[in-house]
Design brief:
Chain lengths: 335, 335
C-alpha cells in the first residue's frame, strides 16, 4: 500500500435545509488490504451531483438514504494499487460508486475499467458517465425527442444540462437553455451551440420563453423545479413532454413548491414523467458509443469544472452546485 | 313554435373565485324559427359539469372562454320542434352543445340523434355522454390500464368518478374511490362495487391509501387536485400513471395549489398526463358500444342526480358541483 491511512467523509447527521459543515464527519482510518477476489484503489476523481442532496434525506427514494456514520456515496474514478481480482490490474483506472474516501476496496461489482485512450478519466464521470447517461436517456427515451422539435433545458450550464442541449442539437432540434448569469448564457449560445439562452436572474423566464418559442416547447427537460418549471409549463406545445430529472431549486427547501401550472398538462394534452438513470444500465454502452462519436466529431464539447484538493474539500465543493458556482460537470480531483 | 319566448342564461362578467348570482344574466328573447337546413328544438335536459368553471375564465385553454354576454355553453338534450334539416325530424331527441337556453336553432353540426330505446335521454349526457367518454378514454387510453392493476379515483361519487370506478371493475381491476361523506362512500362500496372507499372529510387520505394499497397505486385518476392529488402522488407504485382529468378543488381558487409531491414521479418512474375528451370524438361510438354493453349486462349502474326546474335554476344547480352536493351525473331537467 502506498498509504497506510484512508481519509473519508462520512454523514454526521441528517441535514435540515442547506448543508453545513456540521453535517459531515472527517475521519481517518487505516487503509485496508484487498482480500481474495478484490482490488484496492486510490481515488483520483470524485463526482459531485445534485442528486447527492436527496441521498441524505431519510425518506423512501430510488436508493436507500446514506446511513448516519456511513461514508458518503459518490461516483468516483480510482486507480488500482493492488489486486487479487482477475479483472483488474495495478494501474487500471476504474469507475464505480466508491464513495468519498481516499482509498477503496472493491469486489469489482458495479466497477468498470475505463480506457484512458478514449477520453480523459474525469469524462467517465460526466459526458460518458452518469451525467451523459442521464441527459441521453432522459431526452431521447423519456422525452421521446423527435428531429425538428423544440427543446428547453433548465440548469442548462450544469453537467446534465450542457449534455442535454448538445445531444438535442446533434439530433437536429432547436434548443433554448435556461441558466443563471450572462457568462453562462454566453457559453451556451457560443461554445455549445444552443440556439438561445435565458438568464433567469435577469429575465422573466415565461416572457422570454414565449418570445423565443411562440409555438411552444415540445420537450422540457427540468433540472431545477420551482418557478422555472412553472414558467415552462405555461409555454408547452400540444402533446409536450416534461422530463422530471431533478429539482435543484427545491433540494434544500424544507417544503417543496409544487408546480401550480400543472393543469396546462391537461390543456396541452401533455405529460410529465420522471426517471432514474440507473434503470438504463443495460443500455449504457450503447449510449456511450453514440456520445463518444459526437465527442470525437466535435458535435459535443465536454465541459468540466475541476476542483483540485483533498476529500476534506468535498463538503464545500458540493455547495457550489446549489449556488450555481459550477459550469459543466463538477469534479473533485484528489491531489 | 310552442313558445314565442326563449329564456337564456348568459355570462354577465368574469367570475373571481366562487361563482355568484351576479356572474349571470337571465335574459328573455323571442324564440327564432329555423332557416333552411336548420332545425329548432326545445331543451329537455342540461348537463352540469365541473369543466364549466374553466370555460368562464379568460385564459387560453382547450376551448375559447365563453364570451361576456354570450349564452352559457353547455351540453344538452333537445327535442326537435320544427325542422328544415333532412337529418332531424319533429320529435327527435338530439344531443349537442346547445347552451343554457330553452330553445335552440341548429344546423346539425355537432348534433347527434339519440335512440331513447337504448337508454333514458339524460344518460346521453352522462354514462353514454361526455362523462362516460371522459372516464373511458382517460382510464384506458391515457391511463393505459391493464387487467389486475390498482386504480384510485378522486371525486369518485361524481359523474366521471362513478364511471371510472365501474369501468375499472369491468376491466378486472381493484378500485378505491375517494369521496366526501359516509353516504357517498357507502354508495361506492355498496351499489357500485368499488373495493374500498376513503372519506376525505373524515380520514387522512394518505394513510388510508397506504393501508388499502400497501403496494401502491398503478393508475390514479384525478378529478380534484389539491391535497388529495398530493396524497395520491405519495402512494404511487412503480411506473404509475396519474391521469389529470380535472381539479375541482382548485377551480374557484385564485391561485392553484401545485402538487408538492410531484418528485415522486421521479422516484417511482411515473408519469402524469392530461387529456381533453373532445380529442377522442372519432372513437366515441366505439366507447359508447362498450359502455352500453356494460349497462345492459348490469356491470355498470347509471347514477344520476336530476334537478327539475327551469333555466333560471342553472346558476344555483351548478354550485352543487363545487360543494359536493351531487352524487353521479348532475342534470337539470326543464319542466
Amino acid at each position: 500500500m502506498l498509504s497506510a491511512e484512508n481519509r473519508q467523509i462520512r454523514l454526521a447527521r441528517r441535514p435540515v435545509g442547506e448543508l453545513g459543515p456540521e453535517d459531515w464527519e472527517h475521519v481517518t482510518e487505516p487503509a485496508a488490504a484487498p482480500g481474495e477476489g478484490r482490488f484496492a484503489g486510490r481515488t483520483r476523481f470524485i463526482s459531485l451531483d445534485p442528486a447527492m442532496r436527496g441521498w441524505l434525506d431519510d425518506r423512501p427514494s430510488y436508493l436507500p438514504p446514506v446511513g448516519l456514520g456511513e461514508v458518503m456515496r459518490a461516483g468516483s474514478i480510482v486507480e488500482v494499487t493492488e489486486s487479487n481480482h482477475p479483472g483488474f490490474a495495478i494501474g487500471d483506472l476504474v469507475v464505480g460508486m466508491f464513495g468519498v474516501q481516499e482509498h477503496v476496496i472493491s469486489d469489482g461489482k458495479g466497477a468498470l475499467r475505463i480506457d484512458p485512450a478514449t477520453a480523459s478519466p474525469s469524462t467517465f464521470l460526466g459526458a460518458l458517465g452518469m451525467s451523459g447517461m442521464t441527459a441521453y436517456f432522459g431526452l431521447l427515451d423519456v422525452g421521446a425527442l423527435k428531429e425538428g422539435e423544440t427543446v428547453v433545458v433548465s440548469g442548462a450550464a450544469g453537467a446534465v444540462g450542457t449534455m442535454v442541449g448538445q445531444i438535442a442539437k446533434a439530433k437536429g432540434c432547436r434548443v433554448v437553455g435556461i441558466a443563471g448569469g450572462a457568462e453562462k448564457c454566453a457559453l451556451l449560445t457560443g461554445e455549445l451551440g444552443f440556439d438561445a439562452a435565458i438568464d433567469y436572474r435577469a429575465e422573466n423566464v415565461r416572457k422570454a420563453l414565449r418570445t423565443q418559442l411562440p409555438d411552444g416547447i415540445d420537450v422540457y427537460f427540468d433540472n431545477v423545479g420551482g418557478e422555472i418549471l412553472d414558467a415552462a409549463l405555461a409555454c408547452l406545445a400540444m402533446r409536450a413532454r416534461v422530463v422530471v430529472c431533478g429539482a435543484i431549486s427545491q433540494y434544500n427547501a424544507t417544503a417543496v413548491q409544487g408546480p401550480s401550472n400543472y393543469l396546462s398538462l391537461l390543456v396541452r394534452r401533455a405529460r410529465m414523467e420522471g426517471f432514474v438513470v440507473f434503470d438504463y444500465a443495460p443500455r449504457f454502452a450503447e449510449a456511450a458509443r453514440e456520445i463518444g462519436g459526437w465527442i470525437t466529431d466535435g458535435r459535443i464539447k465536454v465541459l468540466e469544472h475541476v476542483v483540485r484538493g483533498t476529500v476534506d474539500d468535498f463538503p464545500q465543493t458540493l455547495q457550489m452546485l446549489f449556488r450555481g458556482g459550477n459550469t459543466g460537470k463538477l469534479v473533485l480531483e484528489l491531489v
